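User: Hey, my collaborator sent me this sequence without any context and asked if I could get a structure. I don't really work with proteins. Can you help?
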Amino acid sequence: MSTYDSGKQFINYFYALIKAIQVYDVGNDVVQTCLQRLFNYMQTVFTLYARLELVRYRDYIFFNKQRMRFEIEGYASLQFMHTRLKSLQIKNMIFLQGITQQELVSFCLLFKKPPAEYAKSLNQQQFPHISVEFSSGDDEIPDFLKDDARIKRSYFKALKVTKTLMQNLWINRPVDVRQSRRIVYNLIDSLSRDEFGILALTAIKNFDEYTYNHSLNVAILTLAIGQRIGLSKKDLADIGTAGLLHDIGKVSIPKDLIYKPEKLTDSEWQILKHHSAYGVKQILRTRGLDDTGLISMTVAYQHHWNFDGSGYPVHEEQDRPVLFSRIVRICDSYDAMTTPRIYQPIPYPPFVALRVLWKLRFTCFDPMLLKVFIQLLGLYPVGTCMILDTEEVALVIRQNEGLPTKPVIKIVCDTHGEKIDGTIIDLSTNGSTSIKQLVFAQKYGINPAAYFV
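Assistant: No problem. I've predicted the 3D structure and written it out in structure-token form, which is a compact way to encode the shape of the chain:
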């Protein structure tokens, strides 16, 4: 049994016992059944682990260092556990071998206490096989998660490899496709540890290196959607590679056309459209006909096909893009809209880009996948700039899982519009602060990417 499956079941049983105790007396059959089930399961898991540890950090719950995902099955139990631990300011809980049923049920009874009384009640009782550590704030990083720097290093290393890969193709040098495979697996690992942390880095937009940044950001966004819809690790590796290589056909287009400072003419636009077909040739050249290569070729060719059968390259109207192409279509469009380019120096704000995508559901974009994407990014995606009711200006720096209207924000300008290194506010716990208006970051001379590097 995997750590993830063990944690998922443990949280489900733990949740069931807590909820039962809130409704029934301890001696009730429902409580006793839930207690026996949890206790027996813990004894089984103790044969695999010396201790069972639940850690809450920001929007996540970890079981024995494995991040638990918010899925349809088990969503209520995980959401309850996260919300309850957050309200009690609990950083972690550790359960040790030797725990008794009486100790377990007594501990669960404490969850009936209001937050103001919980810590006091905990200190008044003896729990020799249970320890609870409280947090002074949501940014207090657990020791095993002190890898923000590692995630950033992974991102910029991936960006460097992506740049080298495409530059070598541009000048007909041989490339090592194994490097692209390593990039994707490193990104999958980063997503499994800190989904919102790696997603925040897609706010990095390099004006001068759009092609490379864009390819990497699309790969990250496609992986995140793939993970949310439950793709296997093999499928994640395939779709991540396809996202990374979706625009690789642009290396067959003259650079002066790719980086033209003005809008393209109609004839130039027709030339650029060929990049989808050119992508098939480039992937065939670099990867050959392995499974991943075939999938990447399909996505490269189809990533400008629309959900309703329109789009380019020209194809039969009844032909529809495959699942992976529909995912990349969404991510490609979103990142392109939110990235400054030579002929579009002011990009769409993230919240506006989402509205545009939503208006084009059923025509350009798969509506079900688009819902997943919006749930993933939140109604106010990372990098969204806003004016608060205090008249201060803030940036969204993180999402709160399950609370799309209550992100974590950072104050970046005071009430006079002057830039400051302000405080971080979690809108899910701070009821005194609210969003007044969404604005363009450029109006205040703010580069959102600067806050994530």
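In plain terms: Residues 385-451 form one domain. You can pass these tokens on to your collaborator as they are.
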